[in-house]
Amino acid sequence: MPRGGSRQGTPGKGYANRTDLTSSYDQGKNTAAAGGRTAPPPAQPSEGPPEPQGGSPILPDQIPGLMDPTQFPEEPITAGLMSGPGPGPSRDNRLEETRSLQRWLPLLSLYLDEPDTPDSVRALFRYIRGT
User: Fold this and answer.
1) Domain boundaries along the sequence of the chain
2) Among candidate residues 97, 96, 76, 71, the one with its CA nearest the CA of residue 88
3) How far apart are CA 53 and CA 39, in angstroms?
4) pLDDT per position in the chain (131 positions), as tens?
């Protein structure tokens, strides 16, 4: 048996207990129910791809694919990372960011003595305080 009990009513007829679905509609002349509103016209197709600021449009065959060979074969794949061969990041700002977090230490310290405080919050507090 379906949830909610057996089906009530006559097949093909509306249910008397659902008059709220039809009685509260605004049937004014400018409503969709009265046929007053129509769908907006479809958007016009564009003439082509947008042109970049350089002038000529970028064509699909000019966009490199994932399986295409690299355009920088002399540069290691780890270039820009803090580890591995190649130049590192252009600027390491971790120390500055950590120092800017020190203003939140008084707020974090309120939660350190709570029994349900995660160890990660305690570790974060120690890390920020140590800089």
Assistant:
1) 93-131
2) 76
3) 36
4) 456 667 666 666 666 666 656 565 555 665 665 665 666 677 666 665 555 566 677 788 888 888 888 888 898 888 888 888 888 887 778 888 888 989 989 988 888 889 899 999 899 888 888 85
Question: Which residues are CB-neighbours of 89 under 8 A, at least 6 positions away?
Answer: 80, 81, 82
Is the model's pTM score more than 0.90? no
Q: Which residue has the tokens 């794949």?
A: 77
For residue 88, give the 3-state DSSP assignment. Answer: coil
Distance (Å, whole) CA 76 – CA 40:
53
Radius of gyration of the chain (CA): 32
Residue 22: what are its φ and ψ, rounded to 5°? -115, -25
